[in-house]
Specification:
- The protein is mainly alpha-helical and 113 residues long.
- Helices cover 76% and strands 0% of the residues.
- It contains seven helices and no strands.
Length: 113
């Protein structure tokens, strides 16, 4: 129940709330990351970032790939894989770095899915 209410609060805060959660992800607090990722999934933020992977502007695609890598959920990695053949070198580098994160036990589960 509490998670649903917290998610509703961040949905109401829209971009400002989502960006503050992304900043928390950048702090790399391992105990918080799964909860932050869940909230970002439920607010639709991850899906929006996945859609940005097809944007014309390469800087938008780079930023989206970086954020999806931080989120690290199954759907985020599915979005990252879409950029594996991106024409921009920096986007592909971010994809490779993100996929390197999958070399963990949890990452192998995501990769299998």
């Amino acid at each position: 129940g509490l998670r649903a209410r917290i998610t509703a609060v961040f949905k109401a805060m829209k971009e400002e709330g989502e960006e503050s959660l992304v900043e928390l992800l950048k702090e790399d607090i391992l105990s918080l990351n799964p909860f932050i990722a869940e909230i970002l999934e439920n607010t639709g933020y991850v899906e929006n970032r996945i859609r940005q992977m097809t944007h014309r502007d390469s800087t938008v695609r780079r930023e989206a790939a970086g954020v999806l890598s931080l989120v690290g959920t199954e759907s985020a990695f599915r979005g990252i894989v879409l950029a594996a053949r991106d024409p921009d070198d920096e986007v592909r580098v971010k994809v490779i770095k993100a996929l390197e994160k999958l070399e963990t036990k949890e990452g192998k589960k995501i990769l299998a899915a």
